[in-house]
Amino acid sequence: MKKSLAVFASAAILSSLVAAPAQAKDVKLTGGGATFAAPLLDKCKGEFATATGDSYTYASLGSGAGRSGWDKGDYDFAWTDTPHAAPKDANTIHVPVVAAPVAVIYNVPGVDEQVNLSPDLIAGIFARKITMWNDPLIKKENNKTIKTPVFKTQKIKTKVKGKTVTKTVIAVDKKGQPVVGSYKTETVEIDFPKLPIVVVYRSDSSGTSGVFTNFLAAMAPSIWTKPGNNDFTATFPGQINDAANFGALQGAKGSEQTVPLTARIAGAITYAESAYAKQNNLPVAKVKNNAGNYVAPTAAGVSAFLGSATTNANGSLTLDYKTTNPAAYELGTTSYALVSTAYKDAAKGAAVKGLMTYVLNECAKKFPETEFAVIEGPLKAFNEAQIAKIK
Predict the structure, then answer these.
(1) How far apart are CA 117 and CA 138, in angstroms?
(2) What is the pLDDT, as a whole number, of residue 11?
(3) What is the CB neighbour count within 10 angstroms for residue 221?
(4) Strand 143-151 versus strand 77-80 pairing type
(5) pLDDT of res. 2
(6) C-beta separation of 138 from 124 below 8 A
(7) Is 260 exposed, middle or buried (0-12, 13-18, 19+ CB in 10 A)?
(8) CA distance 274 to 283
(9) Sign of CA pseudo-dihedral 126, 335, 381, 52
(10) Which of 14, 221, 255, 358 has minimal Cβ neighbours within 10 Å of its Cβ?
(11) Distance in angstroms (rounded) separating the CA atoms of residues 117 and 211
């Protein structure tokens, strides 16, 4: 059964029922899966250990490896960007405890301005219908007047490495939605080089590929004519092994490989969590939403998009690609922790519950530079309800 996240607004009282569990002593957790969640989990690892006395390791191997590893019992918790349709353990639930944008990342020498892309353009590029950066359609999209939301921010104090620090986060309203301070209108004029486009895609089973291609299938169905899939080659709307695609379509395993590969190839473009763009000094595109505004891949735009999502009984979300929220970044998503409601080891169950609580309440606040959303409002209440089931 699906429920609107608005239904969970009143469930905020669950916060008092899901206080951080009593500290276990030096419980060592093992996790693995989606590369999407890895930047935040890596940043927060030391903070979690200091705060709780427990610790974890996380193998960033891709969502497919996360789901299969969870089914084999390799992990105490796993991560996947798309729901696990049929987990082996009937006690498995999804916890959408992190949310962030999937960014369109590019390497176009000579273009210093931030590129603006519509869903149709992104689909055309990745489907190999648009093969040159100076294509008239790309030029038209980037030589006109555009409007972009500017989000309000606020200062908060938190502790990192034992020291009180001030961090800047997006201001939210009582419903947990980001507050737009204004809309910036500007005329953009970008001169693109005559340079072939090289598409870099995930060659492994990737939830990020699933999120990206689900977006393309929903937002540009006349171009991306196949359903989204974690296997990019299966969803590609054409003959991926066609001779015309040789060298122009290149696969690599994990965001840790696709983004550096993009950085090495002039004219390349890929998709990944935006933290990987920062690590490789690459720019990210603004994406046109249903309201006609151009939104950068930020935590705030993702929060605006997720506000219209609906929830499912297993803890997954159904995203609303028809939303007309003017601030929405529609290439955003949650990433799901896979956990159990019946751990055989009670201490591990308590430690996993503590980890999920800590990630939800602390990690994005401590490290806003990762562009993971601080989850508030109905989605936070929904997560708290899911976390409360962990035993």
Answers:
(1) 8
(2) 43
(3) 13
(4) unpaired
(5) 64
(6) no
(7) middle
(8) 9
(9) negative
(10) 221
(11) 17
DSSP result, 232-255:
HHHH-SS-TT-GGGTTTEEEESSH
DSSP 94-124: EEEEEEEEEEEEE--TT--SPPEE-HHHHHH
Tokens in use for 358?
A: 């800590």
- Residue 125's region, left for phi above 0, alpha for psi from -120 to 50, else beta, is alpha
- Contact yes or no for 116/288 (Cβ under 8 A): yes
Our CA dihedral for 68, 75, 367, 326, rounded to 10 degrees, sits at 30
pLDDT tens digit sequence for 311-355: 999 999 999 999 999 999 999 999 999 999 999 999 999 999 999
Q: How far is CA 298 from the centre of its chain?
A: 10
pLDDT for residue 175 = 86
pLDDT for res 176: 86
Query: Residue 363, class by beta-carbon neighbours within 10 Å (0-12 exposed, 13-18 middle, 19+ buried)?
Result: buried
The total number of residues shown for the chain amounts to: 391
DSSP states of 115-150 as a string? PEE-HHHHHHHHTTS--BTT-HHHHHHTEEEEEEEE
Question: Cβ(118)–Cβ(107) under 8 Å?
Answer: no
Q: Are 207 and 98 in contact (CB under 8 A)?
A: no
Max intra-chain CA distance, the chain: 62
DSSP-derived pairing of the beta strands 55-60 and 317-318:
unpaired
